Write the structure tokens for this entry.
Amino acid sequence: MRPAATARSLSAHAVARVLREGVTLDAALKNALVGAESKLTPSVRSLSYGAVRGYFRHEAILGKLLSTPVRSLDFLVRAILSVALYELEDERSPQYAVVDAAVQTAKATDAGRASGLINAVLRRYLRERKSVDAEIASRPAPRHAAPIWMADRFRADWPVRWTQLLAASDAQAPMWLRVNRRLATTSEYVAQLRAAGIEAREEPRVPYAIVLDAPRDVHELPGFAQGVVSVQDLGAQCVAFPLALAPGQRVLDACAAPGGKTALMAEREPNLAKLTAVDIDPHRLSKVRENLNRAQLDAEVLAADAAAPGAWWQGEPFDRILLDAPCSGLGVIRRHPDIRLRKSPSDIDKLPALQGKLLRATWELLKVGGRLVYVTCTLTRSENRNVIAAFLDEHREASLVPVEAWEGWPGFGEDDGFGRQILPGEAGADGFYYAALTKT
């Protein structure tokens, strides 16, 4: 196969695996790219992410063109169609070339018997594109490639902003960096980037945050291998404000993987008495260790269940606890578009019980006068304000730390009476929720 056709085939197989097995797109891509020529990687990633990002818009388009239900299509056929529809949206390749490539990709894979269908559907779309696209554009959910359940949930929780949130979730996220303050200042690092031909700017409201004009491979970033800089979204970097770290504190990072916030805490306050990172997934903890080792940072890393501290906690309370709770991830969909395909309403409805369990368990480890910061990267009321409200009803010794006491808070987010909800796209950040509690 030609290189372009090979990239399309690898992309289609990666997307099909997400559909068939529910794995993350990154995991599917890692598997698909084994043994492939390295020069294909950018094209494969671009096609795969574009196909997954536009999946539900493509589903609406196909629903106008097919005589049978879209969901009845073979996973690989469905993936080939989404890759082709993304290419047609992207408009970097001639239309006839995209259609021909999709047909050839099908013939070179297990989807060969569907090559005629693929050809017919794509050609019909090109003939009727103007009317089909106009109809799709009239409905917010398919226009922004959102599943109906997600649009309904956004509308229920954010009745004024729900279409804005759909649009923000359909956009591509910028690439944010966090400069290790022990090794460089932001201005020094911006100068290093520009010397390397990489344009970037500082975000003065969040210390050590830099955004690139265009995403780059991390290995192109000066000093990345030496821990001078890490990739971390602006919203995630805001965790430093409600935590209010200080020398001599004992700090727990519960549900720590992949370790970006652990490393941030170690960088911001190198004189902590102890920093402990806990995660239930031993495999994901390898990423925590990798992040710490790259920047030569110290922390105790434990494979353990934060909801069952009796098995690992030594009895000495913590001054600060970060509970980065497992969540639906709806605030980071623009960065992880496969969330739309892998999550369901029933999955999300189960999460508040787990979040509440983790909050109650970690609360017992907090020193009187200490502070626990509850964080998610989602937008649902049920996973954010409702979890905090229920916890406060149960624990009279718990009280909110008002946002006014979060020293340096940049003013981001909506106040919901319990914490702050940063919405996707605000200042270029992903969607994050923060609430801070203290024990009396």
Remarks:
- The mean pLDDT is 96.
- The chain has 18 helices and 13 strands.
- Residues 115-137 form the longest helix (23 residues).
- The longest strand covers residues 366-376.
